[in-house]
Amino acid sequence: MATRVDFSREFRYCLETGIDPTPANELSTLRLSVPVTETSNDTYGEVSAAGDTVTDSPTDILTAVEGALEAHDPDVLVCSTSEIVQILHEMATDADVGDFSLSRWPDVDYQQLASRSTYSSYGRVGHSPVRYNVPGRAIIDESNTFFYGETNC
Questions:
Q1: What is the number of alpha carbons within 13 Å of residue 108 lying toward its C-beta?
Q2: How, if at all, do strands 47-49 and 52-54 pair?
Q3: CATH number of the domain encompassing residue 81
Q4: Contacts of 122 (CB under 8 A, 6+ apart)
C-alpha cells in the first residue's frame, strides 16, 4: 500500500524547481505575546511585540505590532499563543484598520490550517490548538511546543 505525503505548495515548488529551501542566513525572529489573562478574550488590551508592551487602544496595539514587523522584518513569529494571529486580524477589522497584516505580503492574508481538536492517544486525552499560516513567515506557538522550549531559543 502506497502512502501519500502532502507537502506545502512552497516546499513542492522548491522540490520541482531544484531551489534549496533552507535559508542562506540566520533566521530573524519577532516575539508577539499576550498575558495569560488576555488569552480568553475576543480582543486584547495588552500585547508585547519585540519586548515592548502596549496597553492602549486596539489601534495603538495594532500600530505597535505593525511597527515591530516593519523594523524587524522577521522570518519567524514566536507567538505566546497561535490565537494571537486571528485575534489581531479581528481587532483590525473591528477598528477599521484595513491594511493590517502579519504577512510579508500585505495583500495575502493569513490562513487557518486546522481547527482546534481534542484527541485520545494511548489512554491520554490531548488538545491540539488552531494552526495558522502567515505567508512569508513561520509561526512558532509557544503554548503548544515542547521542542522550541527545549532548544533554549
A1: 9
A2: antiparallel
A3: 3.30.420.10
A4: none
Domain count, the chain: 1
Residue 35 or residue 40, greater confidence: 35
Q: Which residues contact 146 (CB under 8 A, 6 or more apart)?
A: none
CA-based nearest residue to 117, from 103, 105, 130: 130
The grid cell for 50 is 519585540
Q: Are 34 and 80 in contact (CB under 8 A)?
A: yes
pLDDT of residue 1: 47
What range defines the domain where residue 143 resides?
26-150
Q: Is the pTM of this model over 0.90?
A: no
Tens of pLDDT, residue by residue over 85-110, are: 888 988 988 988 878 888 888 676 76
